[in-house]
Design brief:
By secondary structure, the protein is mostly helical. 41% of the residues lie in helices and 5% in strands. The protein contains nine helices and six strands, in the order αααααββααβαββαβ. The chain has a two-stranded antiparallel ribbon. Strands 3-6 form a two-stranded parallel ribbon. A two-stranded antiparallel ribbon has the order 4-5. Helix 1 (2-28) crosses helix 6 and helix 4 (81-93) packs across helix 5 (102-123). The relative contact order is 0.15.
Length: 266
């Protein structure tokens, strides 16, 4: 009996270690990057930060190669590879600290996620889906501050910890069902208005079929349901109703649409 208990203990420890490794591998690690929670209502400003990152190059590339529907001209990005590489190198040369404002951190990490997503598509182009790229969300390939972040790490280890659920509609995973890639760079000077805009656009787009009593929503509202809060309490319907043109009955049963992982290519 004692031998069996020892084996069970070893098995439990092993499973716990595996679980920890899986969590790390699944992109939940921030790799020590600073995060700040949004306190109260987010405002747009550059005045309270030790650093203001210049995202002008990314802004020009987005305006040139992304249409109003968020569809991407990856071949066009290929032609401007030098400019994209310069922007990526600039992002990776930064060392975010707690002296950066929450606005600056949000803009920086959202642009970091989106720009490196475009980069990984270009590195594997042509590709039908980002899911065809091995370990694309879990492997560290984004150099920042001497560490290698994964896309999952930027999303789950940093942005989600900032307590700003609208980030889910700003980061783009290069897929049809993702929130569209905004054709302008996020900046601290416009961050609140930009997040409001993309959230409202996504909720009222064909990515959701919203009715009062039989709504069928994007899987994003299922995968990250704990992030959508109203008055501090998880409330997916309440969150959506703040932005939706059609209000959902609070007692409605939610259904979810299939997620289309095909590439968001023009």
């Amino acid at each position: 009996m004692k031998y069996v208990l020892q084996l069970l203990s070893i098995l439990i420890i092993s499973l716990n270690l595996q679980a920890c490794n899986l969590l790390s591998a699944a992109g939940f690690s921030s790799q020590g990057q600073p995060t700040k929670k949004v306190e109260g209502e987010l405002t747009s400003t550059t005045a309270n930060s030790a650093m203001n990152v210049d995202h002008a190059t990314w802004d020009k590339l987005l305006k040139k190669h992304v249409d109003s529907e968020g569809m991407v001209d990856y071949k066009g990005f290929m032609n401007d590879r030098e400019q994209l590489n310069q922007y990526l190198q600039m992002l990776s040369s930064q060392k975010p600290t707690d002296d950066w404002s929450v606005q600056e951190l949000l803009a920086y990490y959202i642009n970091l996620y989106n720009a490196y997503t475009v980069d990984v598509i270009l590195q594997n182009y042509p590709v039908k889906s980002i899911q065809d790229i091995d370990g694309v969300f879990t492997k560290g390939f984004i150099p920042v501050g001497g560490r290698e972040l994964s896309l999952g790490g930027v999303e789950n280890g940093i942005l989600r910890k900032m307590d700003e659920p609208r980030i889910h509609f700003a980061i783009n995973c290069a897929s049809i069902s993702c929130p569209k890639l905004l054709n302008e760079a996020y900046t601290a000077s416009k961050i609140n208005e930009q997040l409001d805009r993309v959230t409202k656009e996504f909720i009222n787009s064909d990515k959701n079929d919203i009715t009062a009593n039989s709504p069928k929503l994007s899987r994003i509202f299922d995968w990250y349901k704990k992030d959508y809060k109203v008055d501090g309490e998880t409330n997916v319907i309440g969150f959506i109703n703040q932005y939706s043109n059609t209000k959902i009955n609070p007692q409605a049963e939610l259904q979810y649409k299939e997620y289309d992982w095909n590439l968001n290519e023009q």
